[in-house]
Description:
Blueprint: H1 4-23, E1 30-31, H2 32-49, E2 54-59, E3 68-69, H3 75-84, E4 92-101, E5 104-112, H4 115-118, H5 125-137, E6 142-148, E7 151-159
Parallel strand pairs: 2-4
Antiparallel strand pairs: 1-3, 4-5, 5-7, 6-7
Helix pairs in contact: 1-2
Amino acid sequence: xxxxxxxxxxxxxxxxxxxxxxxxxxxxxxxxxxxxxxxxxxxxxxxxxxxxxxxxxxxxxxxxxxxxxxxxxxxxxxxxxxxxxxxxxxxxxxxxxxxxxxxxxxxxxxxxxxxxxxxxxxxxxxxxxxxxxxxxxxxxxxxxxxxxxxxxxxxxxxxxxxxxxxxxxxxxxxxx
Length: 176
């Protein structure tokens, strides 16, 4: 009601996310560039929500090879960073960085950690991510979580060659 321009931008960003989830996320694999664009759209939407007390940094590769990866592989980390790393009372930060090196994709997400955000227990998101990574990549990935002091960090390193995927690429849609 107070900021019609911000409301329009929010609807546009939300529609981009919904389009991706509805039409592309059911594929067994997706272009890495599309997955990065999805993360950029999600982060843009979240930036509209938060004030200057939240420092959000995102550094994604400008150019990526035309390789396929499983969809929605990184969103759990980014969602958790916004869910658990933001305090409305204290300065907070989220830093997301991704890069490609030696035919591998590296993804790191750091966020501030506050006492009030760590009091929630439960959740199966990261457990399910690890199970999914095991199924898709076997032992050919590195997934590391560091929960130290006032910072929470997730690192993921996956191969970009299709030979490393334990997915039948001939059947693109999961639902068929």
